[in-house]
Amino acid sequence: MECRTVARELTIEGTGIHRGEKTALRLMPGTRGIVFIRGGRRIRATPSNVVDTRLNTAIGEGSVLVSTIEHLMSSLYGAGITDCEIEVSGEEVPMLDGSALPFVRLLEEAGTSPVGRQCAPIQVPSVFRSQRGDAWIEARPGPFSLTYEIDFPDPAIGAQRYRFNGGDYAAEIAPARTFGRIQDVEGMQGAGLALGGGLHNAVVVDGCRVLNPEGFRFPDECVRHKVLDALGDLWLLGVPLVAEIRAFKASHTLHVDLTRQIFEAMTEERQR
Ligand SMILES: [Zn+2]
Fold first, then answer.
1. Least buried of 19, 64, 209, 226, by fewest C-beta within 10 Å?
2. Across all residues in the chain, what is the average pLDDT?
3. What does the DSSP assignment read for 216-268?
4. Distance CA 154, CA 147 (A)
5. In this predicted model, what pLDDT tens digit does every residue of 125-137 receive, in sequence order?
6. Sign of the CA dihedral with 55 first, then 60, 66, and 71 last
């Protein structure tokens, strides 16, 4: 496939979910992969630059950090953008409505253009797997598919499974919002996190109930959001991953660990 970038510069503003601060993003055409720029410092979006995966995916170098990059990364996957310079005014990428849809709309408006280089997809030669307790993610040789399963004690979420075959990302995946359980949200806010979070940028459930008056966008919105997150984390590879990917109750930590394993194996392969 051809490597592509944004056809023109775009800007978007919003609030970060954890610190609750206003931030602006500027996306500019580029030719050197996906690069975040903060305070003049350049940080390449690669698995080796990930510094935190506890509640979001954050990249950094030295003291410079850019957090919550996953939904933007996922929308770049959806648009097939492999090259882009992304300037951020604050530490967090804006949360917008908690999904990737606002980014997708913006990227559709701007369009993409080829950068004059080929981006060969990665085909895994063997099984890669990352596991913690009963949660896992793996990539096996085969055509692309991403099958995700979650299982929550809250009846409002429960057990959900979704298989994405690389079809219509904008319709199937991008609208799915971040979700949380009310007890976790209260715990995070007590710890000074999720300060910018609320029903405007997340679906919050309390046992059987969905607290958002509008309810879910899809009956299986939660598992679709996990697919959205995984596609964003896997896009740290810089090119499409062609593999049969399966995940069970996984998280950013496991997604990024799998991505890092594949990235390192491919780097070794190239050096041989
Ligand atoms: Zn997410």
1. 209
2. 95
3. -SSTTHHHHHHHHHHHHHHGGGSS-EESEEEEES--HHHHHHHHHHHHHHHHH
4. 21
5. 999 999 999 999 9
6. negative
Q: How far is the CA of 173 from the centre of ligand 1 (A)?
A: 11
Residues annotated as part of the active site: 252
Angle made by CA atoms 100, 103, 107, in degrees to the nearest 5: 135
pLDDT-derived band at 193, boundaries 50, 70, 90:
confident
CB 177 within 8 A of CB 98: yes
* Most distant CA pair in the chain, distance: 56
C-alpha of residue 10 to centroid of ligand 1, in Å: 22
- Pairing of the two strands 135-140 and 128-132: antiparallel
Q: Considering only CA atoms, which of 3, 5, 4, 23 is closest in space to residue 13?
A: 23
Tell whether the torsion through CA atoms of 161, 166, 168 and 171 is positive or negative: positive
- Ligand 1 mean position to 228 CA, how many Å? 7
**Which pair of tokens denotes residue 231?**
């596609």
User: What one-letter code names the amino acid at 269?
Assistant: E
DSSP three-state, residue 185 = helix
d(CA 226, CA 236): 16
Distance 226 CA to ligand 1 centre (A): 7
* 132 compared with 266, residue with greater pLDDT: 132
Q: Which helix (H) or strand (E) holds 171?
A: helix 169-172
Domain with residues 2-120, CATH architecture: 2-Layer Sandwich (3.30)
State in Å: Cα 268 to ligand 1 middle: 30
pTM beyond cutoff 0.90: yes
Q: Are 3 and 68 in contact (CB under 8 A)?
A: no
Token code pair at residue 173: 């995946």
